[in-house]
């Protein structure tokens, strides 16, 4: 659907669409028109104009999220267009802002905020080439280092060294860009563009390198820390991290799979766990915690009770929680504040339905996102599930892939889901009757795609018809077989794949060596 543009915006588009004319005329443009021209050039992908606008930016701050977000002149939010052409022009424009200009006193720019850029699955820009978080990290680091080399080599304007611009960014570091980012952070104090890391994600990285680079990011400013795939962080390393570094502003923490495993706990491990809980308690801003695929049976209270601030987001998917853990969650002060909850991989409706419903009723006034994948939810549970979800009138997202539900049960559930007024996104499983008889759940990856696709399409059509007849075209219903889209994984999947093959090969070699020794 077309978004209305003001006359000012239409004029701005006309002005920037002739790049040569626009670039020549920038000197005479009023300062307060720069944001308007920037959004218009971004929409039209006018790379040279974008570059020159940033190079001559006359204002104190340059905030990508605000500049591209909903504005009075043009309502459409462009902040999820991670257009490669436009973003590269912005960043090279920023480098040239430092290098060009004879007079330093005109330069008022103090803060550049790149954190408002959102990485999404479907791109609407013309070039269709995206620059994700990893590539933005790479390019900014490269430009900062190039800038330093250039300033040292040439007899450039001494005023360039007087410039100091904080560049707020969400860094994403893997083995492949580690060296570059590390160098840029090490030399930050000499560079006019100061990388300020607001959120840090690390995948495919040796622990030693992770510990080194996290200290360079200035952890006192960090709001979000994500340690996700192939960083072999275990509980004792986490304790060292929290004991040696303070994260006073940390709001969101994601830990890799298997950080905790209480199955092999000793008395020392219990002490370590208690200490980690206490350290998290000192993080007074912490409201989001994600620790999937850890084994935490019976220890949730020990970990979460020291927290002073209630959690708004909790992901304990596949954490082998027991009755006591669920009872703690349902009765804790976190329950009334949970906006997003992931309990995937737990047979909640089989094992502890009443406690689960208590948890839902406590969080119902704020709960926006609920994920119950691979929870063995069957047809016999559907009425109970509807009863539990009924008070959740703020629910915007419900994901329940991997549950053995028939097409009939799904239709019944969808009829109810139409009544949730805020619902926007539903991820539903392939119906059980589309798979061969005798399939066992959870379904392994090899069998996941072996279902009757024609039958599935027909059921999906029926489900969409239920939404349509209830005037709920606003609800998107889908079955992403291999889980929801993850922009970071998508961007670094080749590196991720190579890493997995390497570790598989190493494991095989160790196995062969042990076999040879035995024989």
UniProtKB/TrEMBL annotation:
InterPro entries: LRR_dom_sf (IPR032675), LRRC14/PRAME (IPR050694). Keywords: Leucine-rich repeat, Repeat. It comes from the Eukaryota. One of its GO terms (cellular component) is cytoplasm. Belongs to the PRAME family. LRRC14 subfamily. This is Leucine-rich repeat-containing protein 14B. The lineage of its organism: Eukaryota, Metazoa, Chordata, Craniata, Vertebrata.
């Amino acid at each position: 659907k077309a978004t209305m543009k003001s006359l000012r915006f239409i004029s701005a588009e006309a002005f920037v669409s002739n790049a040569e004319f626009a670039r020549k005329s920038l000197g005479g443009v009023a300062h307060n028109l720069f944001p308007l021209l920037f959004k218009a050039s971004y929409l039209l992908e006018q790379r040279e104009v974008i570059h020159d606008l940033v190079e001559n930016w006359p204002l104190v701050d340059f905030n990508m999220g605000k500049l591209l977000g909903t504005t009075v002149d043009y309502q459409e939010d462009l902040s999820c267009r991670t257009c490669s052409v436009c973003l590269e022009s912005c960043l090279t424009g920023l480098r040239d802002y430092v290098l060009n200009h004879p007079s330093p006193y005109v330069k008022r720019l103090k803060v550049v905020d790149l954190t408002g850029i959102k990485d999404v699955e479907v791109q609407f820009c013309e070039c269709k080439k995206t620059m994700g978080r990893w590539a933005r990290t790479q390019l900014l680091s490269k430009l900062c280092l190039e800038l330093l080399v250039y300033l040292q080599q040439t007899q450039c304007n001494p005023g360039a060294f007087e410039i100091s611009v904080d560049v707020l960014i969400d860094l994403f570091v893997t083995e492949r860009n580690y060296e570059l980012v590390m160098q840029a952070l090490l030399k930050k104090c000499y560079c006019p563009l100061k990388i300020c890391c607001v959120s840090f994600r690390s995948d495919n990285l040796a622990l030693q390198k992770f510990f080194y680079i996290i200290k360079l990011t200035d952890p006192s400013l960090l709001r979000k820390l994500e340690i996700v795939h192939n960083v072999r962080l275990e509980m004792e390393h986490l304790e060292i991290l929290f004991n040696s570094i303070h994260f006073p502003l940390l709001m969101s923490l994601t830990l890799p799979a298997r950080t905790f495993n209480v199955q092999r706990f000793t008395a020392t491990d219990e002490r370590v766990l208690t200490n980690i809980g206490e350290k998290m308690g000192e993080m007074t801003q912490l409201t989001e915690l994600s620790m999937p695929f850890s084994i935490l049976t019976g220890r949730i209270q020990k970990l979460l009770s020291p927290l002073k601030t209630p959690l708004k987001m909790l992901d304990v998917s596949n954490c082998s929680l027991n009755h006591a853990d669920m009872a703690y969650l349902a009765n804790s002060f976190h329950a009334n504040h949970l906006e997003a909850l992931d309990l995937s991989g737990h047979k909640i409706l089989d094992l502890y339905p009443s406690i689960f419903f208590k948890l839902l009723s406590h969080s119902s006034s704020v709960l926006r996102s609920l994920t119950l994948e691979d929870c063995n939810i069957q047809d016999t549970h559907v009425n109970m599930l509807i009863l539990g979800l009924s008070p959740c009138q703020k629910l915007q997202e419900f994901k329940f892939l991997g549950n053995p539900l028939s097409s009939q049960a799904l239709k019944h559930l969808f009829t109810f889901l139409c009544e949730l007024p805020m619902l926007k996104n539903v991820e539903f499983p392939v119906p059980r009757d589309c798979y061969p008889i005798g399939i066992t759940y959870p379904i392994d990856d090899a069998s996941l795609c072996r279902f009757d696709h024609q039958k599935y399409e027909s059921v999906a059509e029926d489900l969409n018809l239920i939404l349509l007849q209830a005037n709920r075209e606003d609800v998107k219903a889908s079955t992403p077989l291999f889980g929801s889209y993850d922009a970071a994984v998508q961007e670094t999947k080749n590196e991720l794949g190579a890493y997995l093959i390497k570790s598989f090969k190493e494991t095989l070699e160790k196995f062969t060596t042990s076999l040879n020794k035995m024989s």
